[in-house]
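Riboflavin kinase
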Amino acid sequence: MGEDGKHISAVIFDLDGTLVDTQRCVPIVLKEFLAKHGKVMDPEKEIKRVGQVHKVSAAGIVADYDLPLTSQEYSDVIFKMYKKRWSDVKSLPGANRLIRHLHRHGIPFAIASNSLKNNILSKISYQPDWKELFRVIVGVDEVKEGKPSPDMFLLAAKRLGVDASHCLVIEDSMVGVKASKSAKIKVVAVPSVITQIDEYSIADSVIHSLLEFQPQLWGLPSFEDGDEDFIEIQPFSIKGKISKNSSHMNNTTLTISLESDLSIEESLPDQAFGVYFGWANYENFGTVKVVLSIGWKDLTILPTNPKREIKTSLIGEDHQHYIHVDKMDVLAVGFINNLYPMRVEGAVDISEADKIIANKALDLPKFQFHSSSTSLLFK
């Protein structure tokens, strides 16, 4: 329920960067495209384009990089490149949990995206059951103006049969946040551009990921697992090098920091933050329990190219022989259910309570299942 006392009856989601990690492939594809034309991507320029209508961003890219193409020619080529990657795109942390929770409780929800409707349908077709779950979908080609105009959210509310003042928008971009404010709709921001975190203060709430979303604060039903110490997640993997001189061992845990290289930057969505747990694989040493904290570093030093800070703690065994290992592969399968302040710099410290929760959780069959397949996943 908002500050004005109005009850939230429906939820409107953005898609790219909010529910699915399509934003992750944008710079990868653009770098590849520009390289063919002898150009180098400027991260600062591309950050400013997040959330824009494609027509606007396409015109900007053609002009900024002095490409020998029209905007339409650029669009024809780049969309073919994007579409090849959509089948590999994963849902973002907490997205499936929230969507299915709303569906179980009969809360209407919709997608309103600056993408063309056919492209929205194509993207969600690779996510299990999403085409059936989302009964209302609004694309940019169905309104006079895309975001930051409020048209898209107002049309979504109309199709849901709910007054806009009783809707809640969940967005990752400032373009979308501004659109929701123009529509006079409450908005929760899940920033996909972490270096612009201060700008999101106009949102009604700002969270790191959908794993931190608390529906009861908006008059919606609480999560069934909301009182649990942990949340089961869609597994994600990290392959990393161990930072030299970073190991610290006591009788039950080995704390290690991972170097933040390109493979880690491109595999983790911006919304991955907080303390997770899972399984670590060490070359010839097998699979062990691990707790990992994921954060950011160098945001002020390298604002257009920040690095990840990842701390890990191995638990439950004698880890003396792991100290001299150089590489570690991690499969995260769960999230420690904490609310973290909207800090920007650094990973949160892993507490003894986190290790106890993770150790017990990883003994459960639904998490044990992943331990036997971890070594295969990293080959």
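thats it. The chain has a mean pLDDT of 85. Residues 71-83 form the longest helix (13 residues). bye
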